[in-house]
From TrEMBL:
Belongs to the 'phage' integrase family. The keyword DNA-binding applies. One of its GO terms (molecular function) is DNA binding. It comes from Acinetobacter dispersus. One of its GO terms (biological process) is DNA integration. It comes from the Bacteria. SUPFAM superfamilies: DNA breaking-rejoining enzymes. PANTHER family: PROPHAGE INTEGRASE (PTHR30629), PROPHAGE INTEGRASE INTS-RELATED (PTHR30629:SF2). It holds the Pfam family Arm-DNA-bind_3. This is Tyr recombinase domain-containing protein. The keyword DNA-binding applies. Residues 202-391 form the Tyr recombinase domain. Keywords: DNA integration, DNA recombination, DNA-binding.
Length: 402
């Protein structure tokens, strides 16, 4: 006979002389102990061997739910899986679930640290905004509302960080889904603009000549370390990406040939074209570079504080503009509009256009890919042409310094 809730309720807790087994249907039955404890069970044959697995205890699991679980487990047999072993695996996952932090660290070590130049800042971003809220949560139990609650709050305060964090979290979850830590990447269809109302507005900040004068006053009189002053000035002169300078090793600067070689691994377009950027080193640049070399004990031109075997971190470098702005406010009693290291690059590039009309040279100087496949057929480095522009740019900066 098929079991019913009424029968189960009547027999639950009812003592008897011996263990009794009562069949339901589809190989499911209940086992009743002498003290009346009712346990749902499923009998099945796997690999020509008769086996049994417990589904749960009544009334903690209802008859309806027990039948649904029995159906699910029978489905595993069609996949050549042993239901008993699969339940043990599921139990282990529940007892010792893999946490979000654990999956992040696995992704970080196996992928992020090897493929992303700014992996250190990405790790800090996760530590600052996600670990304290979700770090110890089982990753397969974090639902979409948990994620959106965090990203929506960040989008309201720091949209740029929220956008970057969302992008990297989606990549991490995609990695985790492929390795079966989660069933699916639930952030796959979440987008910054549509879901978080984050819009990208191109920055147009360029320092004026008057602001460059103040910039140099800060480099002269402030208590910024000499190393940081040189770093800021070289960013402004070269118009390089700050990451190119942070990762630069002393050996990349050929002071005999007067060139700075930026290997493909150190610049943004290197992974696409495997091309080394070559920039000329003029006498004024060389003086700054030699001074930086004397200040750095390790292999990097700009080491990370006392950690001489590490290059200057992104966090440390991006904080420098605020130090300049703070000095201006405190000692000159003026308010300087916010600017970033990338704005120094934009400032130099804008001045290059005022100095000469050869746009392609300017693009080469800032490490951009030339249009229309020019870089495929034109392998000339234009070092002398770059030097002419740099020389005029340095002359202007010298005039502004006074």
């Amino acid at each position: 006979m098929a079991l019913s809730e009424a029968w189960l309720k009547a027999n639950n807790g009812k003592e008897r002389d011996a263990v009794e087994v009562v069949a339901d249907r589809d190989s499911m039955s209940v086992r009743i102990s002498p003290k009346g404890k009712i346990v749902f069970q499923l009998r099945f044959r796997f690999n020509n061997k008769q086996e049994r697995v417990d589904l749960g205890t009544y009334p903690h699991i209802s008859l309806k739910d027990a039948r649904l679980e029995a159906t699910r487990l029978r489905g595993l047999l069609d996949q050549n899986k042993n239901p008993k072993l699969e339940l043990l695996v599921e139990k282990e996952k529940n007892i010792n679930p893999v946490t979000f932090k654990e999956v992040f660290l696995m992704w970080y070590e196996s992928y992020c640290s090897k493929n992303k130049k700014e992996h250190e800042s990405i790790k800090r971003m996760f530590e600052n905004h996600l670990f304290n809220k979700l770090g110890n949560h089982p990753i397969d139990r974090i639902d979409i509302s948990d994620w959106l609650g965090i990203f929506e709050e960040l989008a309201g305060r720091i949209p740029g960080t929220a956008k970057n964090l969302l992008s990297n979290t989606k990549q991490m979850l995609k990695w985790a889904a492929k390795r079966k830590y989660i069933q699916t990447n639930i952030l796959a269809d979440v987008y910054p603009k549509a879901d978080l109302n984050i819009t990208s507005i191109p920055t147009k900040r360029v320092l004026t000549d008057e602001e460059i004068v103040v910039f140099y006053e800060c480099l002269k009189w402030s208590r910024l370390t000499t190393k940081n002053k040189i770093f800021l000035e070289l960013c402004l002169i070269f118009a390089c990406r700050n990451g190119e300078l942070r990762r630069a090793e002393k050996k990349h600067f050929d002071l005999k040939r007067k060139i700075w070689k930026v290997p493909p691994s150190n610049h943004k377009t290197g992974y696409k074209n495997d091309k080394t950027l070559i920039r000329p080193i003029l006498p004024y640049m060389e003086d700054l570079i030699r001074e930086a070399m004397e200040l750095s004990e390790g292999k990097y031109l700009f080491s990370n504080g006392k950690n001489i075997d590490e290059y200057l971190t992104d966090a440390a470098s991006t904080a420098l503009p605020n130090s300049v702005i703070g000095w201006v406010k405190r000692f000159k009693k003026e308010t300087m509009e916010h600017w970033s290291l990338h704005d120094l690059r934009r400032t130099a590039r804008t001045n290059f256009s005022a100095i000469s009309k050869n746009r392609d040279i300017h693009e080469i100087m800032i490490g951009h890919v030339l249009p229309n496949n020019q870089e495929v057929y034109d392998l000339y480095g234009y070092v002398l042409e770059q030097a002419e522009v740099y020389e005029k740019w340095i002359e202007k900066l010298e005039r502004l310094k006074g």
